[in-house]
C-alpha cells in the first residue's frame, strides 16, 4: 500500500502578527512556525494505517519555502518513511485550487492508495485543499473524519456534520480523507526516532517543474480590520431592557422611521 499525507507549516497562532513593509502579507521575520495542528492528526492516522497494514510506504508532502522541511522532519520522526518538499517561495500567493493543483501535479502518477490531509489550515482555514486535491486526482473523498477503520480494501470513516451529528461512510481505495481534531492522539517524536529521521529520504521538487506553477493570485493590499465602536452591554430586568433597546433603535437606527 502507498500512503500519502499532506501537511502545511503555519505560524504559531500565539505570535504577534504585523503587516510587512510592502503591505501585501504579514511580516514573517519574528514568527514562530509549526506544523498545522489538523495535519498532526492526519500524520498520526497515516502512521497508524501503515503500522496496521505492515507492507506500506508512507510519504509526507509539503508545499513551501525551505523552512517547511522542519515539519516534514517532524512527520518523518513520527513514522513517515520519506519526505517530499515542493519548493515554492511564492506559496503565500496561491489560492486553495492552485495549492491543490501543485500537490496533484506531484501525486497523480505515484499511485497512492490512501491520502490524508488536515481538515483545514489554522492560518487560512479554507478547508478546501484536501477535497480539491481528491477531485483533481479523480478519487473519492470524505471530509472532517473523526473515526477511521481499514479492512480488506474498504475504509469505514465517521464524519462530523453540523449540530454534532455524525455520518458513517464506507469508501473503497484509492480515496482521500481530511482529518478533524480529536480523530486520534498524535504521538510525540522520541529521540531515537528523531535520530532515525535524519537518515530518511527528503526530496525537493521545484514547483516550477509542475503544471500550474505560474498561476499566482495578485495581492493588492493586506491590512488590519477597521476598528469599530465598542459594544453596548445592557443590564437589568427584561422589561427595562426592552425599553432601553427600543430607545436605542429609535435614536441610532431607522427601524422606527
Explain what the structure shows.
The longest helix is centred in the first third of the chain and has 17 residues, at 37-53. The chain has one domain (2-209): Rossmann fold (3-Layer(aba) Sandwich), CATH 3.40.50. α2 (69-78) crosses α5 (191-197) and α3 (96-107) crosses α4. The radius of gyration is 23 Å and the shape is globular. The strands form 2 sheets. The chain has a 9-stranded mixed beta sheet, with helices on both faces. A two-stranded antiparallel sheet has the order 2-3. The chain has helices at residues 37-53, 69-78, 96-107, 129-137, 191-197, 238-252, and strands at 2-7, 9-11, 33-35, 57-64, 82-87, 114-118, 141-151, 154-160, 166-172, 175-179, 202-206. The mean pLDDT is 93. With 257 residues, the chain is α/β, with parallel strands linked by helices. It has 6 helices and 11 strands. InterPro entries: ETF_a/b_N (IPR014730), ETF_b (IPR012255), ETF_beta_N (IPR033948), Rossmann-like_a/b/a_fold (IPR014729). Pfam families: ETF. This is Electron transfer flavoprotein subunit beta. Keywords: Electron transport, Transport. Residues 23-214 form the Electron transfer flavoprotein alpha/beta-subunit N-terminal domain.
Amino acid at each position: 500500500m502507498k500512503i500519502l499525507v499532506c501537511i502545511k507549516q503555519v505560524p504559531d497562532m500565539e505570535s504577534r502578527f504585523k503587516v510587512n513593509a510592502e503591505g501585501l502579507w504579514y511580516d514573517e521575520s519574528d514568527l514562530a512556525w509549526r506544523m498545522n495542528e489538523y495535519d498532526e492528526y492526519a500524520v498520526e492516522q497515516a502512521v497508524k494505517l501503515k503500522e496496521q497494514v505492515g507492507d506500506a510506504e508512507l510519504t509526507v508532502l509539503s508545499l513551501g519555502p525551505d523552512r517547511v522541511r522542519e515539519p516534514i522532519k517532524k512527520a518523518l520522526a513520527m513514522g513517515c518513511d520519506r519526505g517530499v518538499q515542493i519548493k515554492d517561495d511564492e506559496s503565500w500567493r496561491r489560492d486553495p485550487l492552485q495549492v491543490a493543483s501543485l500537490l496533484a501535479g506531484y501525486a497523480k502518477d505515484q499511485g497512492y492508495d490512501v491520502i490524508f490531509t488536515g481538515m483545514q489550515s489554522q492560518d487560512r482555514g479554507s478547508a478546501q485543499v484536501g477535497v480539491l486535491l481528491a477531485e483533481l486526482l479523480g478519487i473519492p473523498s470524505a471530509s472532517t473524519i473523526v473515526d477511521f477503520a481499514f479492512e480488506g480494501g474498504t475504509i469505514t470513516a465517521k464524519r462530523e456534520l453540523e449540530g454534532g451529528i455524525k455520518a458513517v461512510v464506507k469508501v473503497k481505495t484509492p480515496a482521500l480523507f481530511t482529518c478533524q481534531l480529536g480523530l486520534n492522539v498524535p504521538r510525540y517524536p522520541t529521540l531515537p526516532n528523531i535520530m532515525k529521521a535524519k537518515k530518511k529520504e527528503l526530496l525537493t521538487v521545484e514547483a516550477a517543474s509542475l503544471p500550474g506553477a505560474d498561476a499566482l493570485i495578485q495581492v493588492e493590499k493586506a491590512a488590519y480590520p477597521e476598528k469599530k465602536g465598542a459594544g453596548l452591554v445592557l443590564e437589568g430586568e427584561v422589561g427595562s431592557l426592552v425599553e432601553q433597546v427600543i430607545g436605542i433603535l429609535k435614536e441610532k437606527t431607522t427601524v422606527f422611521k
